[in-house]
Design brief:
This protein is globular. The protein has a single domain, classed as Glutaredoxin (3-Layer(aba) Sandwich), CATH 3.40.30. A 5-stranded mixed sheet has the order 1-3-2-4-5. Helix content is about 30%, strand content about 25%. The chain is of the alpha/beta class and about 110 residues long. The chain contains 4 helices and 5 strands. It starts with a strand and ends in an 8-residue tail after the last helix.
Length: about 110
Amino acid sequence: MSPIHVTAASFDEEVRNSETPVLVDFWAPWCPPCRVIAPILDELAERHDGRLKVAKVNVDEHPELAAEFRVSGIPTLVLMEGGVASHTIVGARPLAVLERELGLTEQAA
């Protein structure tokens, strides 16, 4: 599944009320690190389809959501589980690091 673009109007339905955990990407089109992480998030969404949903919020278009989640730098990734923010990552990360930080891979013994 590809990342979905959410707005202030669709945030509750797509994110807060989701039965699947949602990784929310707070981004802006003018942000170089946001452009770097975009294909990584596309792959993350595809690899973990059914286990994780990826949602994108443009902070320029929806500053109220950025303020609610205290986004002070982008990209900021917020993992929402059961409608509650459970983990925040600021800055771009490689796919393997994101998977590990989000608990999507088995840790080596």
